[in-house]
Amino acid sequence: VDAKKIGIIIGPKGATLKGLEEATGCKLDVNAPSKDDSRATMASVTLTADKKEALVAAKKAIRELVSKGYATILQSENFGENYISVHPRYLNEIVGPSGQTIKALQTTLDVKITIPPTDWKPNTVQVGQVKMAKVGVAGSKEGIAQCKQAIQALMQYHHSEISHPGMIHQEVHVPSEFFHCIIGTRGSEIKHIKGNFKVQVYMPNEDSHTDNVLVVGKSNNVEKAIAYIQTLMDRDALQRETKYNDEFY
Question: Is Transit peptide one of the keywords UniProt gives this record (predicted)?
């Protein structure tokens, strides 16, 4: 197994390893490389049991721990597995900065979320239809349902009450001819809005659920940012009108 996954197999103070041995009836011996050996990438787990069924169960559990972060044999009867299909562009949204979003979802809802690998790369031209990523969600029936709802909210509005408590979103109708004044030269204006008002601003694209500009943040900050965006549009409209009048007359 990957040496980096040994900690998951052992668990806090060896609790996971002990649980596996009790649940499967199989003895597990972990042979991990030294922490000082930076070149070693693989470790081994030796399985010993009198019955073949015990070996099969232990091997399955270890593979689950390595690939999913949990083993079904160690879970309660109410435990289940499901998945939600998402565009690969939203995987980073689900994980969040330094893993904060996925940690909040897993801790609050007592679920395990598995992020699949993907070949999709942002800011590149994609040939053909993009393959959707299946994000695994495991836990209680209620936890899975709430987690899937939260992930849907993250994809649509870039926040959820569970992962971003206190955040709201508002849509702003911005005609496409005003996009340039919201974005600014080399993104200067939109960076100013984000930094000054402490909000996130999302311009509509082909995957957006809305054609409007989405502003996300604390309620007061969102209101101020929207007022500023309206000011930018009014100022741009006035400049166009003035230029037209000067040229006409």
Answer: no
